[in-house]
Task: inverse folding
């Protein structure tokens, strides 16, 4: 099998005996490696620091929030993550970050949602707060007018999402206007809000620990699930390294992790599209923790040691990364 990249695109993908003349190309002997498409992190926060105090760190000065983006971008590309979806930043700083790194080899392509939108006082203070369906719709329009690639709303609150903050009827006008603009809308829903968001027709549900068979059936063919399982693993790990509330809540975190696994199983059984998301920065995870390859497509490829289909851990054994055909150092 041979892969030829030129001018940032894949120009040949096929049997080695049929490859075009590549005498002017740099040849890489990738024997024993697997070529996979550039990876995608569908739930990221470039302004976040992660760690045990991730929420508080969103309150740091804008200069500090922006400074984190460069380190995060480099960490992601070194690991082969070449596209990332930033689903919330204070003061729409992710739009500035997206524009600043656009076209850089050592930074992923970023799709940015601007700032979270939530019911007043039901989400952390760095959010755009609204009090009604009309204000929710207006806030979504404001994010799109500012240049957001997608809109992010919070439809439940609390660690387990027991309190739903908008009804289907309140969400529907916002979903409609976002779709009329040709954009996507996603919902933060850790618990009961998933059913409401799915019924309102959002394009994806973030976290989705409360997705059950009935909600998954509503989502099928329309709404994707972006689980953030690594966050729950970090909560459990912090019980030993940070103690305090994490130690006290360890059993609850373990139970929530099992609930999250059940949600993924329910989504898979119903045929729901599932996208991977780390929640780095916005959750306790830090950065670095798919698309496809085809002739004419972007030359975003990763060489790993091993076969990730039989051994998913192979995706951690990154050998080389090529972004737009250029090797990431």
Result:
């Amino acid at each position: 099998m041979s892969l030829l990249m030129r001018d940032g695109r894949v120009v040949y993908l096929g049997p080695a005996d049929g490859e075009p003349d590549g005498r002017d190309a740099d040849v890489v002997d990738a024997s024993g490696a697997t070529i996979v498409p550039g990876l995608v992190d569908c739930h990221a926060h470039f302004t976040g620091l992660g760690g045990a105090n991730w929420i508080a760190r969103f309150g740091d000065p804008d200069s500090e929030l922006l400074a984190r983006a460069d380190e995060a971008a480099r960490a992601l590309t070194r690991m082969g993550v070449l596209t990332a979806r930033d689903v919330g930043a204070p003061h729409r700083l992710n739009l500035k970050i997206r524009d600043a790194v656009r076209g850089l080899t050592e930074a992923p392509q970023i799709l940015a949602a601007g700032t979270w939108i939530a019911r007043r006082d039901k989400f952390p203070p760095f959010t755009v707060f609204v009090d009604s369906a009309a204000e929710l719709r207006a806030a979504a329009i404001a994010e799109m007018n500012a240049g957001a690639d997608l809109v992010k709303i919070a439809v439940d609150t609390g660690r387990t999402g027991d309190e739903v903050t908008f009804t289907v009827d309140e969400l529907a006008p916002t979903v409609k206007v976002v779709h009329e603009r040709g954009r996507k809308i996603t919902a933060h829903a850790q618990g009961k809000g998933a059913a409401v968001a799915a019924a309102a027709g959002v394009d994806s549900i973030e976290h989705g620990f409360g997705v059950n068979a009935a909600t998954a059936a509503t989502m099928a063919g329309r709404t994707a699930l972006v689980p953030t399982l690594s966050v729950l693993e970090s909560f459990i790990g912090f019980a030993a390294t940070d103690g305090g509330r994490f130690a006290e809540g360890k059993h609850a975190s373990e139970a929530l992790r099992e609930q999250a696994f059940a949600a993924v199983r329910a989504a898979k059984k119903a045929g729901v599209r599932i996208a991977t998301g780390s929640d780095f920065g916005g959750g306790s995870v830090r950065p670095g923790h798919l698309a496809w390859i085809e002739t004419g497509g972007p030359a975003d490829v990763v060489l790993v040691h091993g076969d990730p289909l039989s051994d998913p851990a192979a995706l951690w054994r990154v050998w080389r990364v090529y972004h737009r055909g250029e090797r990431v150092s």
Observations:
- The mean pLDDT is 93.
- The chain has two domains: 2-37+292-327, 39-270.
- The two ends are 25 Å apart (CA to CA).
- The first helix runs from residue 54 to 57.
